[in-house]
Structures are given as structure tokens and as C-alpha cells.
Amino acid sequence: MANRKRSSNRPIQRKRRIDYMMGIRYVLLILGFTIVVIPMFYMVISSLKDNATTFLYPPKLFPAIEDITFMNYTYIIENVNFFRYLLNTVFVSLTTVVISGIFSTLLAFSFARLKIPGKNILFGFVISIMLIPGLAMLIPQFELASKLGLINKIWGVILFYSAWVIPFSTFLLKGYIIDNIPYELDESIYVDGGNEFSVYFHIIIPMASPAIAAVSILNFLFPFEELGWSQAILKSDNIRTMPVAITMFFQAHNRTDWGFVFAMTTLAMVPVVLFYLLLQKYFVSGLTSGSIKG
Amino acid sequence: MISQAVIKHKKKRRTNWRIWAIFLPGFLFVTAFTFYPMIKMFVMSFFDWKIGFQQVSTFVGLRNYIDVLSDPTAHIAIENTLVYAVVTVPVQMILGLFVAVLVNGIRKYSVSFRLAYYLPVITSWVVVALLFRYIFATSGLLNYFLVDTIKLISEPIGWLSTRWAALCAIMLLGIWKGIGWNMIVFLAALQAVPKDQYEASDIDGASRIQKFFYITLPNIKGTTLFILVMLTIGAFNTYTPVAVLTAGNPAHQTEVVLTWMYFQTFSALNFGYSAALSIIITALIVIATIIVFGLSAKKKVTHYGK
User: Which fold, A79-289?
Assistant: First the structure.
């Protein structure tokens, strides 16, 4: 074992202590693991019980095999527009990622590199939006959406989501450009007779791609989370995103059909978990690129 | 210095139309969808605002603000939001850092633990809030565990039927969901701490605790501030868990600012009132952020001051 090897030339006392600490770490981590995972496990288990069983007392974390049923999943797939909601959410996510990606890379490039009068104040403005909860501007945004004919339109969530996520994306990207892309590269383009557009396309976009990937992932997940605004805008069933659809389904089922509800939420989690597993390393770099230098 | 030379070069490129073409689209987009509503909201907060056809909005001065500040439910909502922020932010950070230190210290299965602790983070708020609503029901899993398994209490608690019990449930949800995020960000910071500092302190015979307070903490200060700011903003932004878990019940006792505003907007149609409430919550967030930055700036002086 690596840790034996490292400590082999130290007194035995020391080695024992290290192993003992290691044991404590694992015990604590497993304890925390249990607390974190039990609710999720319970959700999946409850999705496999029929609705009446979910009300039985005492509740069972490990039900008998004969009580397990896949009926809830069949119900959801046959009676609920589940894949429609999933498709809507993915569509909102992708368009939000693209729109906010274009605008925030342009803004980050401007703030990091270009000579704009009053740049610091303008940057302060954009950053200050991060402080204001998206929902706090509910009424004027709703009025604006209604003026633009965006009520009950899927673009009504896409455009506002994009605007909400741009400040944080700009903040992360600007930091990344300043810290990781040497200005000499920009200069080499200018010396060769290139202009700001060529710097943007040939230096900034390719060199900032790890950070762009990271903010794209964050922004992609936003529509899978947001409830207040989407609930206000998306009234028709066929354009609803997942959070609205789940909430509406829960309310429509008298807040009691837990078997159905958990089958739907478990299904809704599958794509998100897969997405996370696939892009795990970008998640971390995205969360931390703005923080380490802080 | 190199940076000075860079600045000099940068200055050489004049502001031209291309620069505006790069800057303005994004800026105007953000302006249209967030600045403009923000200013509009400020204006609205001084009016008895109507949105119906042919209805006239009348200027009422500070009346909306007086209404909010004299409304007991608004007090409860603001109080709940502050309690939520003051409790969940530090608890999440401490637990997240603790887990990060543990995960950083093990050699096997660290990826599996990271994944497990991150699971609640990627799960949508709606999903986890529904789940907690089920678990915290009076005949739910938690009461069963407390009453029948470990026999800590004799009677089941009506978690979602009184103000403070329901707030406990909401805060536990917030903490439970947030630990993984804190852990991941802290872990990245811990891994960036220079190893030679620990090695040097080994030679000096520093204890584990000493190493944590004199090497680890100073090195992850930037990250701690980042997390603190993000979590504080996030805490004031709480809407979904409350909307789903309690919907403000019983009798608006568990409202937070955003759920109360949502209710005033879409159920009570008091637009001016909601706008005033928005301005107040925004002011609170700005004050909270200034306090956070102020505290950390002070620390920075004491640490690097010598």
C-alpha cells in the first residue's frame, strides 16, 4: 500500500496513527454518504411501490419483493407527455447555452481586452445583476414578456434565462481570459494585420474553450432547475419544461399519488445524472475556474 | 513589469466600430431583459400599478414601502429569509469543507464519494423538495425513524404544520442539497495548496489542527470568499424549495421573500407592493454582500498586513 511505503522509515507509532486516522475518515465519510444517499434511494424505492403502499405506516425502506411494481413507470410513459417535457427542457437548455454563450464570450472578450469608455462601470453594472434574484424582477419582466408576445411561448423562457445567466458566465469567462490567455497572442494577430474579430475567432474562442465548456454545462442545467419564471410563462402543457411539468403533475394528482410522482422524478433524474457522469471533469473546472484565484 | 508593457500596447488600439460591434449586442441584450425591468420595477414601486386594459396607475409615493414594512406577513417572510441565510450558509460551508478535507485525505474511493455527495446538487430543486415533503410528512420516513427506530421522541412531529418545524425542514433540505457543491469547490482549492508548505510544517512538528488553521485556511481564503458570496446570494434567491415543500403554509408562516412576492403578484395582484418588496430584498442582498466583502477585506489586512 502506498501509505505503508511512504511511512516505512518512520517510527511504528507514527504509522499506526496514520492508519487510525484513515479509518476515522472512512467511517465519517460513509456516515455522511448514508445520510446523503438514503433520501435518493428512498425516492427510487417509493417509485417502485403502488400509490396505496406509499401511504402505509410504518414506511419501508426495503419493501418485500412481491410489493415491487413497475406499474408507476408504465403509467408515466403511457399517460404523461414525459418525453415531450424532456425534449422541451433540452431545447430550452441548448438554445440558452448558445445564446448566452455567444453574448457572454463577446462581453468577456470586451471587458478583458478591448478599449471601451467607462469599461469598469459597465462591467460593474453587468456584475451587479448577479446580486438581484431573477424572480425579484418578476412583474416588469412579465410585462415586458407580454409586450413582446412571449407569454405562453417557449422563447419567453429562453430569452430571459439567457439574460439571467450572462452576468455569471461573463464573470467566469473574463477571469479565465485574463488569467490564461497571454495578450501576446492577441498581439501576434494584430501584427499580422488581423483585427478584433480575428482575435475573437482565432485566439479567444479556441483558447477559452475549457471555460466555455464549463459555463455551458452550468447554463445547460439551469432550465432543469428553474421553476418560478417557467411556471408563470409556460401555460400550455405541450411547451412545459420538466420542473413545471413535475409540479403541475403533482398538483393535478391531489398531492397524494407518490408512486406516480416519484416514478416521474426518477425518470427526470436519469438524463441529468448521465449528463453529469459524461462531463464530470468539466463540472469541477467550471465551478472552480472563477474561485481559486478569487 | 510585463503587465505595464501590455497595458501600453493595449492602449495603442483605438476604440473603433468593431469594438462596439463586439460589445454592444450582448450589452444591449442584458440591458433589455434585466436593466430595463430593474429600472421599471423601481418606478413601479412608487405607483399603485395596474396592468389591466384602460386602467390607470396612480403615483402613491412611498405608500407601497410603508405597506410592506407594516405588513406582519412581510416581516415574517423577511425574517424567514434572513434565518435561512444565517443558518444554511455557514453550516453548508463548514460541513462541505469538512467533507472536502476527509475526501482529500483518503486514497481509495474518493471519486465514488465525490459522486455520491454531488448527487443532490445535480438533482433539480423541484425533485428534492417533493422528496422531502414526502419524507417529512407526519407519517413519513423521518418521524418513523425518530419515533420507532431510535425512539428519540415519543410523538411524531408535524414537520410541515408549524412555522419553525417547517423552516427546519426547509433548511435541512437546503443544507443537504448544498454540501456537495461546497465540497467540490473546496476540494479543488485544497488540492491547489502548495505541498511544500505542509512538508515544511512537518519538519517543525506542527499538529494536524495547527496545519489546518495556519496553512490550509489561509490558502483557501479566496475560495471561501467566493463560496460565501455565492451562497449568500443563493440564500436570498430561495424560491423553489419553499414553494414546493410548504407553499408558505401554514397561514403564510413559512413564506420567504420570493414566495411572498410571487403570491402578491399572481394571487393578490398587488404589483406596486411586490415591486417595493423586490427593491427591499435587493437592498438587503446588496447590504449582505457589502458586509461579506467588508469582513473578508478586514481579514486580508490582518493576514497580509505584516
Answer: MetI-like fold (1.10.3720)
